[in-house]
Amino acid sequence: MQTLIDRLFQGERLTQKEFQALVLCEDQGALELLFQRAKERTEEVFGNHVYIRGLIEISSYCKQDCFYCGLRCSNKKAQRYRLSPEVILATCEQGYEMGFRTFVLQGGEDDFYTDEQMCDLIREICLSCPGSAVTLSFGEKSRRSYEAFRKAGASRYLLRHETATAEHFSRLHPPGQRLDSRMEALSALKELGFQVGAGFMVGSPFQTAEHLAADLYFLQEFRPHMVGIGPFIPHTDTPFGKYAAGDSQQTVKMIAITRGILPGALIPATTALATLSQGSRLQALQAGANVVMPNLSPNEVRVKYNLYNNKLSTGTESAQMLEALRNELAGCGRKMDLSRGDSPLWKA
Ligand code: 5AD
Predict the structure, then answer these.
(1) Could you tell me if the CB of 235 is within 6 A of ligand 1?
(2) What is the reported pTM?
(3) 321: left (phi > 0), else alpha (psi -120 to 50), else beta?
């Protein structure tokens, strides 16, 4: 196992079978080595900085019907809302005052706002919050839409692939959604010059070690700039409401391996991980993660953006607790960094 970890951190390409061996590894000594290497590699590339992104959940409407997600269109119990462009802009401006220089606009796949309205909003954010990065996370859109967003000034796009195995993808989504089109969207985003975020859930229903190995192999080949990895957490009002949650240790392991594959990647310690346990979020930050995304959404809508049960939306998840976050990070030797924090692999 040690040889495999050595090879991973020497930048060697691994086969899917080799990734699978890492995924299945339970040897405590080997895992400690893996986490240590991931921590060192993160420090070599980024120093002790942890990048902070302001997350704004702009719409809880979604036309998709993913079996795992509380925002799925079939969930009639979901509380739906949309933030107006004025409120989104004002939220960015408040964040800017606090020092944020990245705004992540995330929403369900909601066609309510036209591309033109979205582009106007992106331009306004860029004007009102100079020097900031606008990150979008609106799911699958046409290449034309992506191109318009890019031209309007958005520079990053988050679109998790969810699972790199077509057969598994089709067990997590209804027939209309296909892994092929997800992969095409990711390629289009890259070609258009976005910093692109891929990623997957750990412990989603029907997932095997082979699937996780395929996810890691995909990251090695596609080389995204950002990778979001979080545990699956059931949401009661979905078809997967009775499935077990993913394991936080396994999630941290996936983050550490990902750091080996992509030394320059921006990898968040996700809200889903923090929801399972605050401790594992810190553990992730000590094993390869280097991003935290506090929620800037207006308080009254936070409970409505309900992807999974008990989603963390208080404490350090609220921007008001930025100081607490700074202290928490300082407590484990990390420096809170509010700057844009572009990927070192990206040229504007
Ligand atoms: N548990 C964990 N993560 C989830 N997501 C959606 N539903 C859940 C869930 N039940 C993740 C998906 C999506 C991201 C925005 O949130 O990976 O891409």
Answers:
(1) yes
(2) 0.96
(3) alpha
Spell out the residues 6+ positions from residue 86 whose beta carbon is closer than 8 angstroms to its own. Answer: none
Residue range 186-207, pLDDT digits in tens: 999 999 999 999 999 999 999 9
The CATH architecture assigned to 17-337 reads Alpha-Beta Barrel (3.20)
Q: How confident is the model at residue 277 (pLDDT cuts 50, 70, 90)?
A: confident
Q: Is 157 touching ligand 1 by the criterion CB < 6 Å? A: no
Q: Is the CB of 139 under 6 A from ligand 1?
A: no
**Strand 195-202 to 156-158 pairing:** parallel
> Coil, strand or helix: which one is 51?
strand
What percent of the chain shows pLDDT beyond 70? 97
Instruction: For the chain, give every domain's residue range.
Output: 17-337
104-139 residue pLDDT tens: 999 999 999 999 999 999 999 999 999 999 999 999
Q: How far is the CA of 333 from the centre of ligand 1 (A)?
A: 30
Q: Provide the pLDDT for residue 264.
A: 97
Please list, in sequence order, all residues whose beta carbon lies within 8 angstroms of the beta carbon of residue 309, skipping any fewer than 6 positions away: 70, 233, 234, 235, 236
Mean pLDDT calculated for residue range 253-274: 96
pLDDT confidence tier of residue 310, bands split at 50, 70 and 90: confident
**Which residue is associated with the tokens 């988050």?**
158
Which atom of ligand 1 is least distant from the CA of 68? 10
d(CA 167, CA 173): 10
Q: State the DSSP string of 171-237.
A: HHS-TT--HHHHHHHHHHHHHTT-EEEEEEEES-TT--HHHHHHHHHHHHHH--SEEEEEE----TT
Listed in order, strand segments (DSSP E) in 121-259 are: 133-137, 156-158, 195-202, 226-231
Longest dimension (CA), the chain: 55
> Tokens for 24?
């299945």
Distance 167 CA to ligand 1 centre (A): 19
**Going by CA atoms, what residue is nearest to atom 14 of ligand 1?**
160
**Ligand 1 centroid distance, CA of 312 (Å):** 13
